[in-house]
From TrEMBL:
Stated name of the protein: NIPSNAP family protein
Source organism of this protein record: Mycobacterium aquaticum
InterPro entries according to UniProt: Dimeric_a/b-barrel (IPR011008)
Length: 234
């Protein structure tokens, strides 16, 4: 079952397919309209990434906002709704996306038990200029189990090969989804310096992980994402 930890923050995850738009235009309008509106409503920008061409759907942008509780989510929803305090900028943003023919998907997520908050990551000068996003389908109800085993078996090896664990997030209203983020040391240089991650046979910890993971998951899709200028962890 899902476990809700007292310290856990919520995250609003948006995937936007840009349609006829481009990243430059999106970034400008995002900075002029959407970001100020969300900041006024108490949402903290956690990340803005674009999908890179060779691994993922593009042109596509991923936006993540950090909020404290569902009360903040309710306040944002009320403010953007008809008659709300921020109805006008919300409609302007929606109209812009409509003009592009943009499509998207939204998720409400909560952080894994050992995730660091945006403030903690910034205090550590944690860089996430280039990341791997893994959208994982777990066995029903096994999200927490999957994250626990990932941290025990996979994270130490991953970080030794240039892929630092940024965090794992559980989609609140889905019963079988976890999203992981890995920040790549040196951005693109990580592929030159660390890939392939093993050249002959996998190390013992990966063999163990490969024996455990299939019992907890059904599949996944990964993408390589690059930070856009507004992203605070760039």
């Amino acid at each position: 079952m899902k476990k809700f930890y007292g310290h856990t923050l919520l995250y609003l995850h948006e995937t936007v397919d840009l349609g006829a738009g481009n990243v430059e235009g999106f970034t400008q309008r995002f900075s002029d309209t959407y970001h100020p509106m969300m900041a006024e409503l108490g949402a903290r920008l956690f990340a803005v990434w674009e999908t890179t061409p060779y691994n993922g759907h593009w042109p596509q942008v991923t936006v993540i906002w950090e909020i404290d509780t569902f009360a903040d989510y309710a306040r944002i929803g009320r403010a953007q709704a008809a008659g709300g305090s921020h109805e006008k900028p919300a409609r302007q943003w929606s109209a812009y996306l409509s003009e592009l023919g943009a499509r998207g998907e939204g998720r409400i997520m909560y952080a894994g038990k050992y995730n660091r908050t945006l403030a903690q990551l910034r205090a550590e000068n944690f860089g996430a200029g280039l990341v791997i996003q893994e959208i994982m389908q777990t066995k029903p109800g096994r999200q927490d189990d999957y994250i626990r085993e990932l941290q025990r078996l996979y994270v130490p090896w991953s970080e030794s090969t240039g892929k630092r664990w940024l965090g794992s997030f559980i989609t609140t209203f889905r019963f079988n989804e976890v999203i992981h983020y890995w920040a790549l040391d040196g951005d693109w240089d990580c592929f030159e310096n660390h890939y392939p991650s093993w050249k002959d046979s996998p190390p013992a910890e990966i063999v163990t992980w490969m024996s455990v993971a299939p019992a907890l998951r059904d599949g996944w899709e990964d993408s390589i994402l690059a930070a856009l200028p507004p992203s605070p962890l760039k």
